[in-house]
UniProtKB/TrEMBL annotation:
<protein>
    <submittedName>
        <fullName>Lipid A oxidase</fullName>
    </submittedName>
</protein>
<feature type="signal peptide">
    <location>
        <begin position="1"/>
        <end position="19"/>
    </location>
</feature>
<dbReference type="Pfam" id="PF13505">
    <property type="entry name" value="OMP_b-brl"/>
</dbReference>
<keyword id="KW-0732">Signal</keyword>
<dbReference type="InterPro" id="IPR027385">
    <property type="entry name" value="Beta-barrel_OMP"/>
</dbReference>
<feature type="domain" description="Outer membrane protein beta-barrel">
    <location>
        <begin position="5"/>
        <end position="214"/>
    </location>
</feature>
<dbReference type="InterPro" id="IPR011250">
    <property type="entry name" value="OMP/PagP_B-barrel"/>
</dbReference>
């Protein structure tokens, strides 16, 4: 999936644009949260088999939440491209319990998705759009019980996203946008002490950003 996504981005970059086509590069940030999820650990007796975890987003703490997007608009209404989102989640001390000293994905519960978009006719300059995509989760897994630690990036499973928003031009090339973005990821991570960690995480984000078109 990751290789296919990179190929799709390369094709979008080199494909000659038709008269109505455009390439759009976007950067966004915002506020992101995540509801609680069940976390399962197998093969490592140092951790509990199941934990109900409450997650916090802390979007503006370093490293902050952000996203990068490349979109090829093949027509005035339809486009496709890649979207990388640096999401993050911290477990609360009460929910993770004393068996964990660290349980978080704070250098990113990162997702890379290949998305398709549909945009609608503008109203008073504001142009609504919707999108959806599939891809992979590439989180930075940080798990420790004070003795055994796991710390590093892993490809942990599939991810899916849906979004809806609106964009507004501020010049011929630049525009600003706001959107709601929902992302679901399945995460199965290998623990350095042996065993695996599994959890499905949902994130909700309100994004604002700027786009450059050419």
């Amino acid at each position: 999936m990751l290789r296919a996504s990179l190929v799709a981005l390369s094709l979008a970059a080199v494909m000659p644009a038709a008269a109505s086509a455009e390439v759009e590069l976007s950067f966004y940030g915002g506020a992101q949260s995540a509801p609680h999820s069940d976390l399962f650990i197998s093969g490592d007796p140092a951790y509990p088999a199941k934990t109900r975890v409450q997650w916090k987003g802390r979007s503006f703490d370093p490293p902050p939440y952000y996203g990068l997007r490349a979109t090829y608009w093949a027509s005035d209404s339809f486009g496709y491209g890649l979207d990388f989102t640096h999401t993050k989640v911290y477990s609360t001390a009460d929910s993770r319990g004393s068996d964990f000293t660290t349980l978080e994905f704070t250098d990113g519960l990162n997702t890379l998705t290949a998305n398709a978009y549909r945009r609608f006719q503008p109203m008073y300059g504001i142009r609504p759009y919707v999108g959806a995509g599939l891809g992979v989760a590439i989180p930075h897994v940080e798990v420790s019980n004070g003795t055994t630690s796991t710390f590093g990036y892993q490809v942990t499973g599939p991810a899916a996203t849906v979004l809806a928003g609106a964009t507004y031009p501020i010049s011929e090339r630049f525009s600003v946008f706001g959107e709601y973005k929902f992302t679901y990821s399945q995460n199965t991570a290998d623990l350095d002490g042996g065993g695996t960690l599994e959890t499905d995480i949902i994130t909700n984000a309100l994004n604002v950003g700027v786009s450059f078109s050419f």
